[in-house]
Design brief:
By secondary structure, the chain is mainly α. It has a single domain (about 15-455), classed as Amino acid/polyamine transporter I. About 75% of the residues lie in helices and about 0% in strands. It contains 18 helices and no strands. The longest helix has about 35 residues, at about 280-315. The two termini are about 15 Å apart. The relative contact order is 0.21. The model has no long low-confidence stretch (mean pLDDT about 90).
Length: about 475
């Protein structure tokens, strides 16, 4: 294990944790960009896909919720895997988390923002316009992470409260304006062609929430009373974001027309179009809060990923240099890890942006990273009952039945999309994403052969274990 300074302990309360996670969820950015991925497959059943996504994620979130009662570390799901299944499983987990962390960050955070800004006016869709947007989005998020969580969460709280308010007010106006066109049929399969379409839609609807648990649990070494505050923050975030996104998706579907949602997915910024019909003030506010929302995502993910990569480097795995595991002396932040993530994610985003454009390229990267993210949750869910039995805290429902349900949901979605991968280029994204799983296994095997002691001892550090060490 690399000798490193500690992160700043007891510096994050539950309220700040909620808005750190709300930044990752970035509801306005989801409504402007990622929601079109849901609509492409769910069509008029988009509110149903969002609702199913919330319920499915609650089963999956249970794993992080249960672990947080006993294990808190900057490694998040990496540490969860190691605590139950050992260092080899933890290292395999780390390769998957590194893959989806870098790709997911660059996709939504950089290309998503670039796509949104350029779609406001198609005249600015060339690389000379979207590339600077992606670069400065990455740079600003690094600066916030470098400066620390108080600065970051101050920004998230201020912008996030305004963002949620604008979305709910605008959605309410759309719903009221629709009058007798309102219908609960959008929460049924009436407007979707089949189960496979709904499964593809759920990949995107679940990705909306997927960073929630990681963005909170990665702050385990910095949270105040993490065994209590992390649990409350997880539940509070899912409730707040779930209600907001379901209301927004319902308003967009009703406002556009359930039978006409195929054109919603192909229209430039359809949510903006709906808000523009209301009045110019709400339209301008939506543009502003959406840009803020993308930046909130960038900052939150940079915060979480930097701590996770710091944890990898601290344990000496993934062939990362020791410098990645160093903490900034003044700000007590993993700024070296944040800088590395900034560089790698930006390069990957530029490659996909050049090949497919910022809109399609970003959505493809999100689809690619979904499979590694799903595997991360599956491994942690398998690890949960093993660890709980070891510490004599095992409960059948919380630690076995609910995790099994979560695993089944993820496996069904993964298998369904691989069997029916869709058309090009989405099928290419599916093949790349699923291929990473065996590649991560091969990399773990190679790493074990090169430095077996580091791999065997990986993913063990938590503040609970640290408290037991002799002083």
């Amino acid at each position: 294990m690399v000798e490193v300074d500690q992160l700043k302990r007891n510096s994050l309360g539950g309220f700040r944790l909620v808005w750190q996670a709300m930044g990752t969820l970035s509801v306005a950015a989801d409504a402007a960009y990622l929601l079109t991925g849901v609509v492409e497959y769910a069509l008029g059943a988009t509110p149903l896909a969002l609702l199913l996504g919330v319920f499915a994620y609650l089963f999956i979130m249970n794993t992080g919720y249960q672990f947080s009662k006993h294990v808190n570390s900057a490694g998040s799901y990496y540490t969860f895997a190691g605590k139950g299944l050992g260092g080899i499983a933890g290292t395999f987990q780390a390769w998957n988390m590194a893959f989806y962390g870098l790709i997911g960050y660059g996709s939504f955070g950089f290309l998503g923002l670039a796509a949104f800004i350029t779609l406001l006016d198609p005249a600015y869709k060339g690389i000379v316009f979207w590339l600077p947007v992606a670069f400065f989005a990455a740079l600003i998020s690094f600066i916030f992470t470098h400066r620390g969580m108080k600065v970051s969460t101050d920004y998230q709280i201020t912008g996030g409260v305004i963002e949620v308010a604008v979305l709910l007010i605008g959605s309410a106006l759309i719903i009221i304006h629709a009058g007798n066109l309102n219908t609960l049929a959008v929460f049924t399969t009436k407007y979707v062609s089949g189960a496979s379409q709904l499964l593809f839609a759920m990949i995107y609807s679940m990705i909306l929430y997927f960073g929630t648990t990681v963005s909170i649990t990665a702050m385990g070494e910095e949270a105040v009373s993490p065994q209590k505050t992390i649990k409350k923050a997880l539940i509070g975030t899912v409730i707040l974001s779930g209600i907001t996104l379901i209301i927004v998706s319902y308003a967009f579907t009703i406002g556009w027309g359930p039978s006409a949602m195929a054109s919603f997915a192909t229209s430039p910024d359809p949510g903006i179009i709906l808000f523009r019909k209301l009045n110019p003030v709400i339209y301008i506010l939506l543009i502003l809060v959406t840009v803020n929302s993308f930046m909130g995502y960038n900052i939150s993910v940079s915060n979480a990923d930097s701590r996770i990569f710091y944890s990898f480097a601290r344990d000496g795995i993934l062939f990362l240099p020791e410098s990645i595991g160093r903490i900034h002396k003044k700000y007590k932040t993993p700024s070296n890890a944040a800088l590395a993530i900034f560089a790698f994610s930006l390069v990957i985003a530029i490659i996909f942006g050049v090949l497919f454009g910022p809109v399609k390229g970003g959505l493809m990267m999100l689809l690619i990273n979904a499979y590694a993210a799903y595997v991360e949750h599956i491994i942690a869910s398998i690890s949960l009952p093993v660890m709980m039995r070891r510490i004599h805290k095992f409960k059948v429902i919380e630690h076995l039945i609910i995790p099994v349900i979560g695993i089944v949901i993820l496996v069904i979605i993964m298998a369904g999309t691989v069997i029916s991968p869709g058309k090009y280029p989405e099928n290419l994204a599916v093949y790349i994403g699923i291929s990473w799983i065996p590649i991560a296994g091969i990399l773990t095997f190679i790493e074990y052969k090169i430095h077996p002691d580091k791999v065997r001892n990986a993913a063990k550090m938590s503040i609970e274990e640290e408290a037991l060490e002799p002083k």
